[in-house]
Design goal:
The chain has about 700 residues and is an alpha/beta fold. It has four domains: about 130 residues, Rossmann fold (3-Layer(aba) Sandwich), CATH 3.40.50.2300; about 110 residues, PAS domain (Beta-Lactamase); about 160 residues, 2-Layer Sandwich (Alpha-Beta Plaits), CATH 3.30.70; about 220 residues, Alpha-Beta Barrel (TIM Barrel), CATH 3.20.20. It has 22 helices and 27 strands. Helix 16 packs parallel to helix 17. The two termini are about 45 Å apart.
Length: about 700
């Protein structure tokens, strides 16, 4: 279930203590959850919040007096919304457990137990998302059934649905073929009545086998007869289906003359084969994959899916020419087919992506298979037209078992594996095994740790710069610097891909040093070129723990002759709140060098200006959530104006990021925000060439 920075948790906290509520919010944020909190101070505010924007979760102190727990629950129930409630206690006993359960609350969380609170919140939030998704899927399923029914009715192919040999649905083309005017004439009639007498006994055996759950033949030839007794050669195609929740068979019946001129084998091969490669096509492969996944879910077998993609495909096309693209694909397909067994299912799955399905393959065998395919390409030469190419491949695989017996999940994991393999240089296998997820994750993380260390040691990081546009007064030349990683092939890797791994392995402080050092060097270079450029860079709370970054800043400013006042170091509001003493010490020390500190993700807490009473930030950057549908959100507009006014009174500058349109610019200008940035104004780029 997705949660975290990309999906905010809309949390309603009911607690008499603002500080205690703020501590909960900061604790969740420090564990990677983007929280959008609200806190009512009386029942009227509670009613407004419950009736307003959607909420995800309620945390209520059992002893709250501003909004008592006994007052909250009836209001939540009366709203008719799926809104989980968790009760905050200092400790727990059987009476409290029983009382909480009988009240309708989802559970108890222990105040002061950060791990327990986080895990409980994540579990309830994930369950809520699952319930919402289920309701959405049910709605989509009903709509899909409605559309399918309309499509079947309008189809020119005669189609019927058969349950236990009886008609339960038939479209107009089917009725017309047999001479019926209305479905009521055929409803409940046996399919045997549509078969000529000489085929009845054989067809009766077919219906018996279908009733026992045996697989239907994909194609069945017979002589059919109409209501008037007229006979004609026909072919029936059976497909397992459901109709109004009941398992049945969909029957497509065509007159035989429609299939004249091509044998059954030729026709089937034409429908199942990709013409450029001679492999199975995507549609056919997906059907085989669905059957294999269903088999695993029922019989607990093990299969493996591999997605295979040539490395640097676009570069190879440039070398050999677009006219040789089909030849390159055909050569790749032939090489792949030669590395596999005859019973492997292999297909062209995408534009230049291939898929392999091997049944009855345990993890060790799957690893051997993937390595065999990888080696087959790495050690071979592909002939495409008049060119010879040494092409490697990236492979993403999934060990299909009961723990991942879902086609969408299998394909998603395999696709992620391909992209991960490409991201670390290609010519690599990423095989996901749910039964050995820890091992696979360790290998992936080890590869990224090595990659990050290489980037630090060999200067593979670089900066992109986005301008901050002043909304009032003379324009200043201000940019925010964003970290990027350059891989061995000159491709950019976004920081979200690697920063979490860097944090888990103690590498953030080294990245902070690189970022700050590079920013100071750029400021010095710009100064020498006659530009008074201010740079904003992000650092992490890890760098607050000792004076190593402070010493590095001092050394780099002196080395590059840079003016410290041109450097602004940004820290998230929540991190400063939870590391306040260290942040205060760091801020006072860098201020002696002229360096300023900015707070980002500002304003999303319950009382953000309380922090500014204790921490001297020069700039505050609004949390991005304020910019969502700003023109249509009066609450956000009022909140932004309030923040701008209080910041101005305190002598602090304000920044709004992720500006999306001109109307937002107008609102920000009217609210008194000092700077705006976002793709609407200018995207981040490698060069600082914005015309201020």
């Amino acid at each position: 279930m997705q949660y975290g920075k990309d999906l905010p948790l809309r949390l309603l906290i009911i607690d008499d203590s603002v500080e205690a509520a703020e501590a909960i919010v900061n604790g969740l944020r420090n564990r990677g959850i983007a929280v959008r909190p609200s806190r009512p101070e009386n029942t009227d505010q509670l009613d407004e919040l419950l009736a307003g924007q959607p909420l995800d979760l309620v945390l209520v102190a059992h002893d709250a007096t501003t909004v008592p727990f006994e007052t909250l629950m009836p209001r939540v129930d009366a709203g008719g919304k799926d809104l989980p409630v968790l009760v905050l206690h200092d400790d727990v006993d059987s009476a409290r457990l029983v009382g909480t359960s009988s009240s309708g609350a989802r559970g108890i969380v222990l105040r002061g137990q950060a791990e327990h609170l986080h895990d409980t919140v994540v579990r309830e939030w994930s369950d809520l998302q699952a319930r919402r998704l289920l309701r959405k899927l049910e709605t989509h399923a009903r709509e899909t059934e409605r559309r399918c029914d309309a499509l079947i009715e309008s189809s020119r192919d005669p189609i019927a649905y058969i349950h236990e040999g009886m008609h339960i649905r038939a479209n107009s083309a089917y009725l017309e073929m047999f001479g019926f005017e209305d479905f009521e004439e055929i409803e409940g009639m046996s399919l045997l009545d549509m078969v000529a007498s000489r085929h009845v006994d054989e067809f009766k055996q077919l219906l018996k086998s279908l009733s026992k759950g045996e697989a239907p033949p994909p194609r069945y030839e017979l002589t059919a007869q109409t209501l008037d007794g007229e006979t004609f050669p026909a072919v029936m195609e059976f497909t397992a289906a459901t109709y109004e929740g009941e398992a049945c068979q969909q029957v497509v019946l065509r007159k035989q003359e429609l299939d004249v001129g091509m044998s059954e084998g030729e026709r089937r091969q034409l429908m199942e084969t990709d013409q450029a490669t001679g492999l199975l096509n995507r549609q056919t492969f997906l059907k085989r994959l669905e059957d294999s996944v269903a088999d695993v879910a029922e019989h607990a077998g093990q299969h493996v899916l591999l997605l295979i993609e040539p490395d640097h495909y676009n570069r190879m096309l440039q070398e050999i020419g677009l006219d040789a693209a089909d030849e390159l694909l055909a050569a790749s397909a032939a090489r792949l087919r030669a590395a596999l067994r005859d019973d492997d299912v292999v297909a062209r799955f995408g534009d230049h992506q291939f898929a392999v399905l091997r049944r009855n393959s345990d993890h060790a065998a799957s690893v051997d298979l993937a390595e065999t395919v990888r080696t087959a390409f790495a050690e071979a030469v592909l002939e495409a037209g008049s060119r010879s190419l040494n092409a490697t491949v990236s492979i993403g695989g999934v060990q299909i078992g009961q723990r991942i017996a879902n086609v969408s999940a299998v394909l998603a994991k395999a696709s992620n594996g391909v992209q991960s393999a490409i991201g670390v240089g290609g010519n690599r296998v990423e095989l996901f095994d749910p039964g050995a997820a820890d091992r696979a994750e360790e290998e992936r993380v080890e590869a990224w740790v090595a990659r990050i260390r290489d980037a630090i040691d060999n200067d593979r990081f670089l900066m992109h710069y986005q301008p901050l546009v002043g909304l009032h007064g003379a324009p200043d030349e201000i940019y925010e610097a964003y970290l990027r990683l350059l891989n061995e092939h000159g491709e950019l890797v976004q920081p979200l891909t690697f920063l979490q791994i860097a944090e888990e392995h103690g590498l953030l402080w080294e990245i902070d040093r690189w970022v700050v050092g590079r920013a100071i060097a750029v400021i010095g270079e710009r100064q020498k070129a006659g530009h008074e450029t201010t740079l904003l860079v992000k650092i992490t709370e890890v760098s607050l723990q000792d004076d190593s970054l402070l010493k590095h800043i001092t050394e780099q400013l002196a080395r590059h002759g840079a003016d410290g006042k041109r450097l602004v170091l940004q820290l998230p509001e929540s991190k400063v709140s939870t590391h306040l003493r260290a942040a205060q010490t760091f801020q006072k020390a860098v201020a002696q060098l002229g360096v300023r500190i900015g707070l980002e993700q500002f304003g999303s807490g319950l009382n953000p200006f309380q922090l500014l009473n204790h921490f001297d930030a020069s700039m505050v950057k609004l949390d991005r959530s304020f910019m969502e549908d700003l023109a249509g959100n009066a609450d956000n507009q009022a909140r932004i104006k309030e923040i701008a006014e209080k910041a101005r009174e305190g002598g602090k500058q304000t920044i709004a990021e992720f500006v999306q349109d001109a109307s937002s610019m107008t609102i920000l200008f009217g609210a008194g925000i000092d700077y705006a940035q976002g793709h609407f104004l200018a995207p981040a780029a490698a060069e600082m060439d914005y015309e201020f």
